[in-house]
């Protein structure tokens, strides 16, 4: 068998050792440092993006908290303004109602009461006149 031939075994072993050493050297000195450099760069880039994302996230949280505080403050101020406006409007309405009752509505109320009095006087006059007419009719018929 030619694989086990002792004459060529040493030559094959030597060439295998030379090629393996050459291949190992090329891999170890050229290819692996480049791969290692690429992996380090990728790791640094990834770490940069992670750190940037974390910083942006923290900034966005602080901005969100600030916005929430501002909205809460603005809402409180708006509610206070609305409450004071309602209170002021109610007092103005009450003043205007009192003023109108003292001036314009006073004359209307007086006229209303005079009209009611006139109606009552007319009703009492009609009632009295009807009573007199009935009494004359009764006396005429002798009832």
Major sheet, described briefly? none
Task: Using the CA coordinates, give the radius of gyration.
Answer: 57 Å
Return residue spans where pLDDT drops below 50 for at least 5 consecutive residues: none
Structural class: mainly alpha
* Proportion of strand residues: under 5%
Strand runs, count: 0
Order of helices and strands: HH
User: How many structural domains are formed by the residues?
Assistant: 2
Distance between the termini: 169 Å
- Level of helix content? over 70%
Morphology: rod-shaped
Mean pLDDT: 87
Count helical runs: 2
Descriptive account of the structure:
The structure is a single chain. The protein is mainly alpha-helical. It has two domains: 2-102; 106-143. The protein has two helices and no strands. The chain has helices at residues 6-102, 104-141. Helix 1 packs across helix 2 (104-141). The longest helix is centred in the middle third of the chain and has 97 residues, at 6-102. The chain is rod-shaped, with a radius of gyration of 57 Å. The termini are far apart. The relative contact order is 0.02. The mean pLDDT is 87.
């Amino acid at each position: 068998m030619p694989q086990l031939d002792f004459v060529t075994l040493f030559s094959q072993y030597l060439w295998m050792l030379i090629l393996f050493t050459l291949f190992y050297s090329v891999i170890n000195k050229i290819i692996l440092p480049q791969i290692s450099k690429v992996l380090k760069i990728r790791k640094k880039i990834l770490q940069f993006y992670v750190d940037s994302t974390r910083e942006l996230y923290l900034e966005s949280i602080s901005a969100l908290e600030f916005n929430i505080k501002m909205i809460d403050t603005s809402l409180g101020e708006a509610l206070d303004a609305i409450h004071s406006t309602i209170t002021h409007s109610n007092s103005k309405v009450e003043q205007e109602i009192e003023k109108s009752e003292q001036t314009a509505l006073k004359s209307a109320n007086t006229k209303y009461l005079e009209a009611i009095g006139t109606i009552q006087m007319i009703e009492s006059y009609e009632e009295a006149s009807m009573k007199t007419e009935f009494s004359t009719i009764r006396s005429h018929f002798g009832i």
